[in-house]
Amino acid sequence: MKNYDITLIVPPMWSTTAPWTASGFLCEALRKRGFRVQFLDYNIQLFHACQSIGFGNLWSDPSFIQNWEDCAFDYLSHIFDLDEIQGGVIGFCATQTGLRSAVTLAKRIRDHFPRRKIIFGGHAVYFPDGATVVPVDVADAICKGEGEEVVCEMLNKDFRRWREIPGLYLPTDKGWVLNQERPPVTDLDQFPWPTYSEVDLSRYTKPYLGLVGSRGCLGRCVFCSERQRFPGHRFRSVANQVDELEYLSSTYPIEHFPYYDSLVNGNYQVLREKAEEIIRRGLKVDYSGNMMVRESMADDLFPLLRKSGFSVAFIGIESGSAATLARMRKRHNPRMAADFLKKCHNAGIRTEINIIIGFPTETETHFQETLDFVRDNRQYIDNIISLNTFGLAHSDLCDKLEEYGIVIDRKFANGNEWHTREHPNDIGVRRARMETFLKLEETLGLRGEYLFSDEHYFGENPPPAPESFLEAYQKADESLAPEDRLKHAASVDRLRLALRLRHRTPVETAVKMVASIRGRGLLKSVRRIREKIRREAMTRRQSP
């Protein structure tokens, strides 16, 4: 019997640091409208299952990101017991690294619960090419963009009337078709902020909770897709944001609140009044956020922010070349960036910067200017938090290929497969510049605990053999309580079935060998046995 109106699922793979804010907003919006919500963070469930048997590095090692996106770990979805899903509607909150895992899960759910409705949402399915990753026969709708209003309307209407709801991709015989665009909500205060009552925060790897105080961005950076997903720049009121901080900091043992806004200094008045209100209420909070280099930001605002608990600024410097910054449509030049870094540093605010390597107009001279900028401003930079070669996917540059001299080698492979006509800039050049920059970063001591980078696209790190995972997962039974062993055994069986690795009896093995010899002949059968032995030996050597 279904006890919930909707089950929201966060599929693997995603960050294990803290619960995802998007699902938090959805859960709260649905509860406010009176709907019964079941929340399943399958990402954190699978992480703990894998970590307990020595496979936690599938999340911590960025070289495995491409494996997740390429479906190499889809078999892991069979660990989940679908009978725990109790919602009449099942919603997937899909990220780029979790989209294909979500599709695999949706296929299983469709077979297991053919009458239940399945919907997808999240930034991974905002654009049409992301939506096409979802087969039309495994989902009933895809929500484009912000989902708080859309999902509530879907639950309020009969399934046959979903096409009346703006903002949905709906299945047709020609694939997914958007019924109509939905204008963004201007008053963000109408959405309740997440209380996270649906999650066990002790399961996450950091005592953090992410916050979102605004949506959209002031910038018009030619390389960014953020303002396409979140039009305009909308922000919550000061009281609304500080109420959230006060509740969460007094309810949970949280050490840090990272704001996931595109920029936290988009509205100076809100930023100042928020800092003053935090101080007035006596809140002892530590928080951080993305900041745009803005020459007009008042000098006294930096120490005020620090006094309120703002400890880390993530700053999109992107380049140390004035020419490159201008073609990026950034609103700053290298001098402004250096001054902004210095003001943050002098106020006691830690600075962690983003750098883009290989922008289409970047020459070797421009790249050297970026290296020089980092060297010259080292004393004001604490870490480089993001280092990426330039990817094209869903940026304004997709419509300006001729203007920027870009030739696409393979469309939407990962956004990195392109070159320029006028000067050498291809994936080989960008990879070499990446290696040069990483060496400088190491020399200057700028590598922090995390580095968000697309370096993994250039490496080759084969995923662990499924057989080695199955073997380790099966042995985990030995450490379980008796009441948990039956459930674990069922998940082992599901994995075996998915991998077609059911153990055979000696009689079954003999029968299979005879059938093989009859069908292929003795010589081919011997060769197949040798190859199987060789693969099993390699699997044992690769096992952790």
Secondary structure layout:
Elements: E1 4-10, H1 21-32, E2 37-41, H2 42-51, H3 57-60, H4 65-69, E3 87-93, H5 99-112, E4 117-121, H6 128-131, E5 141-143, H7 148-156, E6 168-172, E7 175-178, E8 214-216, H8 226-229, E9 233-235, H9 238-251, E10 257-258, H10 268-281, E11 287-291, H11 301-308, E12 310-318, H12 322-328, H13 334-346, E13 350-357, H14 364-376, E14 383-389, E15 406-408, E16 418-420, H15 427-444, E17 452-453, H16 466-475, H17 482-499, H18 506-520, H19 522-542
Parallel strand pairs: 1-2, 1-3, 3-4, 4-5, 10-11, 11-12, 12-13, 13-14, 14-17
Antiparallel strand pairs: 5-6, 6-7, 8-9, 15-16
Helix pairs in contact: 1-7, 9-10, 10-11, 16-17, 18-19
Overview of the molecule:
The structure is a single chain. By secondary structure, the chain is an alpha/beta fold. It folds into four domains: 175 residues, Response regulator (Rossmann fold); 249 residues, Aldolase class I (TIM Barrel, Alpha-Beta Barrel); 32 residues; 41 residues, no CATH class. The protein has 19 helices and 17 strands. The strands form four sheets. Strands 2-1-3-4-5-6-7 form a seven-stranded mixed β-sheet, sandwiched between helices. Strand 1, helix 1 and strand 2 form a beta-alpha-beta unit. Helix 1 crosses helix 7 and helix 18 crosses helix 19. The longest helix has 21 residues. The protein is globular and about 75 Å long.
Short description:
This protein has 544 residues and is α/β, with parallel strands linked by helices.
